[in-house]
Amino acid sequence: MGLLQAHCPGAAGTNVKTNNIQLIIRLLIPLGAVLLALLIGAVMLLSLGADPVSGYATMFRAAFGSLDGFSETAIKSIPLLLVGVGICIAFRANVINIGGEGQMVIGALLSTTAALAFPDLPSLVLIPVVLLAGAVGGAFWGAIAGALKAWFNVSEILSTIMLNIVAVQFMNFLLRGPMMDPAEVARGTGIPQTMRLSPNADLPILIEGMRIHLGVVIALGVAIGAYFLLWRTSMGFRLRAVGYNPDASRYAGISVPKNITAALAFSGAMAGIAGAILVFGSESHRMVTDGSSMGFTGSAGFNGIVVALLAGLHPLWSIPSALLFGGMLVGANALQRAAQVPSALIIALNGLIVVFVVSSEYFKQRAIPTIRVDGEMDGAEEGGANNG
Amino acid sequence: MDVAIVLKILIAAVAAGTPFVYAALGELVAEKSGVLNLGVEGMMLVGAITGFIAMAKTGSLLLAVASGMTAGMLMAAIFGVLTLTLMANQVASGLALTIFGIGLSAFLGLNYTSIALPGIPELPIPLLSDIPVLGKLFFSYDILVYGSLALFLLVSWFLYKTRAGLILRGIGETPKSAHALGYNVIRIRYLAVLFGGAMAGLGGVYLSVAYTPVWVEGMVAGRGWVSLALVVFATWRPLRVLFGAYLFGAITIAQFHVQGLGIDIPSQLLSMLPYLATILVLVVISRDLTAIRLNSPASLGITYHPENQ
Question: Please, are residues B217 and B43 in contact by the beta-carbon 8 Å criterion?
Fold first, then answer.
């Protein structure tokens, strides 16, 4: 795990037993991190005068206690999973993409533009078109930061953050200006949103009477696809090689700049798809913001990083990880309604979970001094040791 | 009239640049010791709300500053434990710190969103501030602006004129050699990180108590990240940090005046400008690999393992 293991000196040792221990530890560490964070959250709940046990019970029931609740959780998990999977790809190439927010926004804007331009296309065509437009928009926004890093040595951490702010302002401009709903203009109410987009682009509902829609299937497909990309294709091999050791990769004839750009483009594409799904899977079927930086994305661009880190930068482990954080969002809303406990608590808990996951690397290395490198589910330990 | 507007922009630019001066100089010291702390945004936010609460409760600026700095240091201490004691990756730990800080500050500030503080008074320096034009430009700010200038002098003096500063820079270059010479790398890095946290907290206090004396969730609004960019922009030199901070402040302020001049550009597009300018500047600075290599601390961002040496 390039990001989490600064140095991993002994990458040897190959027997089944360590593999099993490793798998157990892989499961125990995220669980421990979540439990510790929840414990601190309980203290925070107490400080607000709320009962932690019933508080957590409320959250759990709301998120996972009913089919309806689970449908909400799944919907909240979609952008988290997509952004998280993108983060997995980028971080494995040792590229720190903090630009999920901006990439979501640009993806959503391009997909909305596509839907506005071709409203009469049949669903079977229009839905792929808007999703592709989202991917292209996000990939473009990510590739800018990638190219700046690859050819101009600009830190992608800084450029992606700056590009987030630029993208959000661009969205505010478009949604208050050229793309604003004509009805809003006529009424003069000025809500920054587009008109109701073509119904042909609505993502189909999967279960009658619930909100769960095609986006869930797409997100799962992308996660599985990313797994194959990373470990079953030569493209993925090159990405990981560049992340693991750029000098050796260069020596082996792999273009480091191209792969850095590609990593950010892939990562951005997934965030872009997430942006498109937020628009076409929404209840209002329009792109809408409140003008703030999180108005459109709900911070999924950042929380996706949390999802990926908890998942050990593995696309498939990102699925339960995204469900957990999606569930926490749904639960937090319920808690706010039931006990006036602010959802800010949950953001703090997210941060704590990452803090614990990051710190657990130390104990993990103590527990298994030798780490096997392979390409399976439990092979997520590999990655770049180069942080320079 | 033109002079008056330019003067107004410059004075406002200094105020707008001051939070960057604090946060970026603090980060500069941490980075000079070889530690990259991406948690500046989070430390600033927690400093901002803590200072705001102290100010709202007691009305004492001194207490606000002290508590904001303490809060920033506590946040930095978390980062220190993660990266220096547990030897976790600095990038991931910094991100975790920022995410935690965003949530924690929002949580702490729940009951303070509808309060406006009176701000802090300007403190014109007697006599000097009476000089026409220059007096207003240089000698009539509030005490925290003067404080940031004092910090600049202190950091420049410390890093380049003291033995302790030399040791700190040496540790940032080759921690192994410093260790071999008998210096406690981890302890000195802890001190540098804590100093960075205190300054980020103070930058936050300036925002919430003096610059815009209300608490708004996430009010630091990317300034922590810009501070990190400023350190690169400055190629790790204090004077250039100061210059960069005021330059960024000036671009931020100028956008409000462009519309006043009757130039019709949507405000959202104007507010992109400082960030586009930052990217552009980073391109110009970063592409010069030699300058970056010469100036950036050689061990920046690399975890130091004492037992492996």
Answer: no
